[in-house]
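Request: Not sure, any thoughts?
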Amino acid sequence: MSQDEERGLEVEALQCIYADDFALISSTPHHFTIRITTPQTRHLPGAAFTLDVTFTPNYPNELPVFLTKAENNLTSDDIAQMKPIIVEEANKNLGNQMVYAVAQRLKEWIDDKRAKYVPPAKPVVVETKHIGTAVTPQTFTKWWNSFLVRHPEKTLQAICASRVASHQARRSSRRATTTSAASPSSGSGGFTGRQLFERDKSLVGSDTLPDSGASGVDWSLFADEDDDLDDDDGNQS
């Protein structure tokens, strides 16, 4: 059997093995492509590349022309790493049919590489609540000075003056109310207890109650106190 016939048989065998993944480009010289796929892994999607082969006149006693082309989910670095693998496996089979051995070696290599792939760890994002500026004497003084610039009416002097004025106004109001309540009613002829004693010195040592109608004093208001005193005296006896 001639070398050309042997090459033809190898091409037919490859076509049967790879079926739709095999594409014959020419028969003289034999030129074809084989599409090689790798399955999806835990971390990577499925991928594929094409092995392009052209037999030389002295094949299989010399290496054919091998080219590789990535189709999807493979990088140029992956393709570059395939070249020495192709040369190594082809030289092992020099003198024999070698295309299938090279194709299988490439598939095993890419499958193994992708199976060992571990994605880089994602950075851990720690969510923290908003932390305000720490309060120190320096930061408080800075804030206070800027606050007084915006609100001059809030200075300590202004606040103190406002509170003093408010306190004095309340005191004046209470004094006016007390004086008004203590003064005899106009037209009623009534007097306070102090005014009664000032008018009649004899009341100092007297146990006699003045006439309520004459003095303008409502002595009925003191009835409860007299009853309480009588009760206390009874209890002591």
Observations:
- DSSP finds eight helices and four strands in the chain.
